[in-house]
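Quick review question:
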């Protein structure tokens, strides 16, 4: 695998930061990835792609995470874990990780990292034993029932099978988290 499997997402609001992401399918070493990352103290967001309708969800969550980093108001340990927390409409960090983080035995994962240099990006892509894919594959990977469940989306908000409406409802939940 090469560095080119990681796609950079533009961050016009935060020119001093970078955001990279990649989807992996047929992941064979899922149970080993999390302990290895924790033992090396490597900061990366490993996301369950079944709850991501479109990369735009991740972009919104990452934008909120980077803003929290820059304003020193992170709710989690680091900016990458903050992305997973921000994907969730709830304020419970543990629940956010259970519902939106990568959980073995899932065979697909979405790897997202903020401010990684080329060496770190290469290390991360080589860590995953799976098939890298473009972010467009998220359009076919998400589980509509799971997205509806985790974001509490009713059919009057997004009719069954309406991907765009489902995405809007999920982004609305992410964007309004913490707003009163």
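Suggested answer, residue by residue:
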């Amino acid at each position: 695998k090469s560095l080119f499997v990681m796609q950079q997402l533009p961050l016009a609001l935060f020119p001093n930061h970078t955001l990279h992401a990649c989807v992996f399918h047929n992941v064979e070493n899922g149970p080993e990835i999390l302990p290895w990352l924790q033992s090396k103290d490597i900061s990366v967001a490993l996301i369950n792609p079944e709850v991501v309708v479109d990369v735009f969800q991740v972009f919104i969550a990452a934008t909120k995470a980077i803003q929290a980093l820059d304003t020193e108001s992170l709710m989690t340990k680091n900016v990458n874990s903050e992305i997973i927390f921000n994907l969730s409409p709830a304020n419970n960090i543990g629940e956010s990780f259970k519902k939106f983080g990568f959980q073995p035995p899932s065979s697909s994962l979405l790897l997202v990292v903020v401010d990684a240099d080329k060496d770190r990006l290469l290390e991360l892509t080589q860590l995953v034993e799976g098939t890298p894919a473009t972010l467009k594959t998220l359009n076919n990977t998400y589980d509509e029932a799971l997205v509806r469940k985790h974001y509490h989306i009713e059919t009057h908000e997004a009719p069954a099978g309406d991907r765009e409406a489902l995405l809007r409802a999920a982004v609305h939940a992410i964007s309004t988290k913490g707003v009163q």
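Why it works: The mean pLDDT is 92. The radius of gyration is 15 Å.
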